[in-house]
Amino acid sequence: xKKPEKVxxxxxxxxxxxxxxxIWQACPSYFVSTIIYAVFNALxxxxxxxxxxQILNELAGPRRPDVLWKLVVLTLxxxxxxxxxxxxxxxxxxxxRSLMGISEWKIYSEKMMSMDYxxxxxxxxxxxxxxxxxxxxxGGWGLSLPARExxxxxxxxxxxxxxxxxxxxxxxxxxxxxxxxxxxxxxPLSVVLLLMAMAAVTLAAPALTxxxxxxxxxxAEDAKFSNRLVTFNGYAAFSEKERTLDIRMYRQDxxxxxxxFLNTNFKPGGEIANCARGPMxxxxxxxxxxxxxxxxxxxxxxxLKAWAGAFxxxxxxxxxxxxxxxxxxxxxxxxxxxxxxxxxxxxxxxFKFLDIPNTMYQGSLTVEKRSDHNYEIEFRxxxxxxxxxxxxxxxHVSMKFKVGKRLAVVGRNGxxxxxxxxxxxxxxxxxxxxxxxNGINIRKYNYQEYISIFSVVFQDFRLFAFPLGQNVAVxxxxxxxxxxxxxxxxxxxxxxxxxxxxxxxxxxxxxGEDGVEISGGEAQKIAIARTLYKDAPFLIxxxxxxxxxxVAEYExxxxxxxIIGDKTAVYISHRLSSCRFCDEVAVFSHGQIVQYGTHDNxxxxxxxxxxxxxxxxxxxxxxxxxAE
Length: 628
Description:
It is a single chain. The chain has 628 residues and is of the alpha/beta class. The protein is built from 22 helices and ten strands. The chain has helices at residues 9-26, 28-60, 65-114, 117-120, 123-139, 145-148, 150-172, 188-218, 220-239, 241-250, 253-262, 271-307, 313-354, 417-424, 447-451, 468-473, 480-489, 493-498, 520-534, 550-563, 599-604, 609-627; strands at 376-384, 394-402, 406-411, 432-437, 440-441, 454-457, 538-542, 568-572, 584-589, 592-597. Helix 2 (28-60) runs antiparallel to helix 13, helix 5 (123-139) packs across helix 9 (220-239) and helix 8 (188-218) runs antiparallel to helix 12.
């Protein structure tokens, strides 16, 4: 158990205030509903105390039926109205709270989407995001906690204000001289000593609670690791289709259970459980005892003044109730403020993630939208290595290609093909050299405009468990006819006819039993249709047919080659069938272009890498050649 560094009060206030501001901007209605609820939540018990005191005073005094009747009716009417208002406001708060949770996730996702890609891909970023999410999973710590705790804080403040208003007469009403020794209660020193004792007892309770709560922050790292194990063993390992086959065939459940048994943090006898029974339990118990001590002190003081004749029995109810309410409000306020201070340690991690600065120059030039798609891309002595590596992924790459051309990028694994595409799409900037679009460094173009001219099928693409048409169009409102055309061009038309709801058929079954499972090859065809739907001037297919057999792959390339028209197409593949449709072929090896030219010329160079790669796969393409 690691004792965390105590966050200074000023920093804790700043971090929590910033968190509240972010949630306010994302979900302002939650705060409006919370303030209204806090007012009624504080007024309801105080109104009951005051009206009860008036009724008891009347019963102990004049006992006037007409006055009693009015007091009872007024009490019922006011308390009923306050209860109705409180319940309505509470329902409103609860509905807004769910939106606040969505808003928190939106803040994280928008940060990820606005980050430079190379930063989002760094392990450090993934670690910070994981810590933030696991902290929330462990104890609700993090970004939304200050907003969630706002309701009890405001309720406590209103409760304190109302209780003080009801309590003030307790100290102003004098014990009559005839009370003898009890007149000491009239002395200012007695009142001061009483208030000091009550304050000490009142402040001790939340201090003990916050001390107990601080142990949660000490266990945060262990708890986050345990949650990861529980989440993986309980969901990821048995629910993800990519894992279930291996788990079943190799009985990997045995090793998973072994790791589960190693996770003793949440089990009886574990460190967290022992701490909960030990110091955490003791501190929470002491806090409760101290709270009751305060109630005892309040009862003694009020009853002594009443015994001495300072006020009647009705006032006893009012003052005891008001003082007890005052104590409860202060205790709640102290506890919540302590919770927010403990939360500051988790907010440090959250804001480390949210404050990661972008380093890529975003550019300002407008990318010309040419109807003739007349674009030219040039790599000029480009070298690149990834931020966390000193090994060059690309080295001294120079090449130029124009719109309307078909470029095949081939090579063995790790030769730099995908890195080449990431640089072309400006997911990364070159470490050395420059990339030009129509003679201008691509860094000078508006970033969003520049990436809009590319439509890419990456080798690790993903589809969502949404309707087919929405997956193709990447939107809820789309051109259905265009989507169908793109699916047809991607050789998906026959499968489309068999789907029960056509374009409205949901893929997979994550959100409903009526979803359909699709094969890897079918998924790739949908991804290609998505590429066509975007209608960008540059089409890039990074291993787009890896899940297809060679014949189906050939058919896809043949169809794709016919439909892209005057657009530029870049094909990346281990299998070389795409090269026969391309104007030029770039052969990569160890991060460099070792050959460049047409398929026919390259295959004639018997000493070149392309010749060896082609002949190693020729058996797959002989049938296709005969079919031509």
